[in-house]
Amino acid sequence: xxxxxxxxxxxxxxxxxxxxxxxxxxxxxxxxxxxxxxxxxxxxxxxxxxxxxxxxxxxxxxxxxxxxxxxxxxxxxxxxxxxxxxxxxxxxxxxxxxxxxxxxxxxxxxxxxxxxxxxxxxxxxxxxxxxxxxx
Length: 135
What we know:
The protein has helices spanning 8-29, 36-47, 56-68, 73-96, 101-112, 114-134.
């Protein structure tokens, strides 16, 4: 276990930077996009149809959030804090391990760049939620 402590200003700087990136993401990406799989989920959620093509919990979540406001905007607003929170925790962990601020900025930057923002959620969704079905 490391005895290195993170300076509070580093924590606040990281949180501030990730918050600014989150606001920039809202400006760039809200309300999200409706590609073929999103359209399929929206149709299933509207009809109450559950299949094994998409996770039933995800279809249910779409049906609930679609009552609040039209999707994909609400789903996007639920996913964005997860991405930003994960980047914050990873950055904080790197700082606690004694990594340089530059390395933290590079790793967080790779995660939070627009291309990472567009591609990583699909990877996490398809890669991590799909492995139990493959087993």
